[in-house]
């Protein structure tokens, strides 16, 4: 069994999909949620489902100070993987070096095209033939880490930005939990857990 920590800033739809998938499997679990927004949907969901959660404010402090606080909470748990699920902060080397090749993110475009916070809109506006998602390891750059998995669909399958966004979220909610479980299972197999 392996634990993960989820970092989320927003409504928590990917967090919910991850929790649902891991709960149905029961070999792995979400042991901690970190959110940088006090009223996030992710924090509310964690509270309603008995998942330990912490609000870490980045306001009026350095990123380093906030990340030192995050590391204190992580130190109190046996987290195998940190999963970013709509976490709208760029992590510094402080956390990345503490968890090398153990932090992953999902992005709503086919990286390296359209990194950053407007991946869906930029993919749509670009006229790219294919849109989709990228699951990748986190490094110090903005969506520049080594890609683990990509899933795509042809733009002809949707007729509007709203439809494209819905389709991308369906891909995220299906593939992200499965990729997380696969990484955790691989770690167990390698280590004989």
TrEMBL record:
Catalytic activity line of the entry: N(1)-(5-phospho-beta-D-ribosyl)glycinamide + (6R)-10-formyltetrahydrofolate = N(2)-formyl-N(1)-(5-phospho-beta-D-ribosyl)glycinamide + (6S)-5,6,7,8-tetrahydrofolate + H(+)
EC number assigned by the record: 2.1.2.2
Binding site for (6R)-10-formyltetrahydrofolate: 63, 88-91, 105
Positions contributing to N(1)-(5-phospho-beta-D-ribosyl)glycinamide binding: 12-14
Pathway as given in its UniProt record: Purine metabolism; IMP biosynthesis via de novo pathway; N(2)-formyl-N(1)-(5-phospho-D-ribosyl)glycinamide from N(1)-(5-phospho-D-ribosyl)glycinamide (10-formyl THF route): step 1/1
CC terms in the record's Gene Ontology section: cytosol
Function: Catalyzes the transfer of a formyl group from 10-formyltetrahydrofolate to 5-phospho-ribosyl-glycinamide (GAR), producing 5-phospho-ribosyl-N-formylglycinamide (FGAR) and tetrahydrofolate.
Name of the molecule in the record: Phosphoribosylglycinamide formyltransferase
């Amino acid at each position: 069994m392996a634990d993960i920590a989820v970092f989320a800033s927003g409504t928590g739809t990917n967090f919910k999909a991850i929790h649902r998938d891991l709960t149905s499997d029961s070999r792995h679990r979400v042991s901690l949620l970190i959110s940088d927004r006090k009223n996030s949907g992710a924090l509310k969901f964690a509270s309603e489902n008995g998942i330990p959660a912490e609000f870490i404010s980045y306001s009026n402090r350095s990123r380093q100070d906030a990340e030192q606080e995050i590391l204190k909470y992580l130190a109190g748990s046996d987290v195998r993987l940190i999963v970013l699920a709509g976490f709208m902060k760029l992590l510094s080397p402080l956390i990345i070096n503490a968890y090398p090749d153990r932090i992953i993110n999902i992005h709503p475009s086919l990286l390296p095209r359209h990194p950053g916070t407007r991946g869906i809109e930029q993919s749509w506006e670009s006229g790219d033939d294919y849109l989709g998602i990228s699951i990748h390891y986190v490094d110090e750059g903005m969506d520049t880490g080594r890609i683990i998995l990509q899933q795509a669909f042809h733009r002809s399958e949707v007729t509007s930005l709203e439809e494209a966004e819905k389709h991308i979220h369906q891909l995220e909610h299906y593939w992200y939990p499965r990729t997380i479980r696969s990484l955790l299972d691989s770690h167990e197999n390698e280590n004989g857990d």
